[in-house]
UniProtKB/TrEMBL annotation:
Superkingdom of origin: Archaea
DUF4350 domain span: 33-234
Taxonomic source organism: Methanofollis liminatans DSM 4140
Keyword annotations: Membrane, Transmembrane, Transmembrane helix
The name this protein goes by in its record: DUF4350 domain-containing protein
Lineage, broadest ranks: Archaea, Methanobacteriati, Methanobacteriota, Stenosarchaea group, Methanomicrobia
Length: 290
């Protein structure tokens, strides 16, 4: 009888673990909780190892100096409180790295007073490593700590940039494929297009990377120079911050969101712990009575 109980408990434990993995994993693009190719779980694991601080609300930016804030795939329009916090952050001579292609990055750039613009259209190049013309390489084009040890970075469907000082740009055989037909036609111009640019803004520094896809799990195994570029990015300043309140990387399933909520409110943690303790006490009391 006892053997059957142990076997049943083992089976239930395995099922519970499998269900937990499923429930606490999401398949949303860019999510840090997504372990598939289109998630950023590997990158965020590295950030945790580096002691990165998470920024969930505008007030979290207060007091930081000599810091770099990474914003990946922003979602939704930034509100007035966010803009004020970002401006104040930049005014203290900090760095904001915005990684976006076709999200709401332009609204942020205009609001903080940046002259950099993320251009619409699919940036395509003849000079590529794969059959897909959107697998574009960016070549070093400027002098900056971010690119001093990098000659080329592979991008995944990046957006072209306008304004600022280019740090990485495509080869000459590139164009913005506005009609997505894979050919150069109409008013599409063959040229070098910036995919990473920097600008001094409000006393600080804004760096724009036209591709949040370089942080995806699928890109983590590519060339060593991609890894060097990301390592240089997170090492720009002594203090490393990552935005979670305005980024698609924070997307999570309901169970993960519930756990995160509990972590933010100690009283809720006590209440949940009390429920579990009460349930366990009731279960063992029933067994003792039997």
């Amino acid at each position: 009888m006892q053997g059957r109980f142990v076997a049943a408990a083992a089976v239930l434990l395995v099922l519970a673990l499998a269900a937990g993995v499923h429930l606490f994993t999401t398949y949303d693009d860019y999510s840090r909780h997504n372990i598939q190719w289109n998630g950023t779980s590997s990158f965020f694991s590295h950030l945790e190892d580096r002691g990165a601080h998470e920024v969930w609300r505008p007030a979290d930016l207060g007091g930081y100096n000599d810091a770099v804030l990474i914003v990946i795939a922003p979602q939704g329009s930034p509100d007035a409180e966010q803009i004020a916090a970002y401006r104040a952050f930049l005014a203290r001579n900090n760095t904001v790295v915005l990684c976006d292609d076709f999200g709401s990055g332009n609204e942020f750039l205009a609001a903080v007073g940046s002259g950099i613009t993320i251009l619409p259209g699919n940036l395509t190049s003849v000079d590529r490593d794969y059959a897909d013309g959107a697998a574009v390489r960016g070549y070093r084009a400027g002098n900056h700590t971010l690119v001093e040890n990098v000659s080329t970075v592979l991008f995944n469907r990046p957006a072209a940039l306008k304004g600022g000082t280019p740090l990485l740009q495509t080869s000459l055989l590139s164009w913005v494929d506005r009609n997505s037909n894979g050919r150069i036609d109409g008013d599409e111009v063959v040229s070098r297009y910036p995919v990473c640019a920097v600008e001094r803004v409000g006393g600080g520094e804004v760096i724009v990377i036209g591709d949040p896809g370089i942080f995806l799990n699928a890109m983590s195994g590519f060339s060593g120079e991609n890894r060097q570029f990301i390592e240089a990015l997170i090492s720009l300043r002594p203090v490393l911050l990552v935005d979670q309140g305005w980024s698609r990387t924070a997307s999570a399933g309901a169970p993960t969101a519930a756990v995160r909520l509990a972590k933010e409110y100690p009283l809720l943690q006590i209440a949940v712990a009390g429920l579990f303790i009460g349930a366990a006490a009731y279960f063992f009391r029933k067994r003792i009575i039997r």
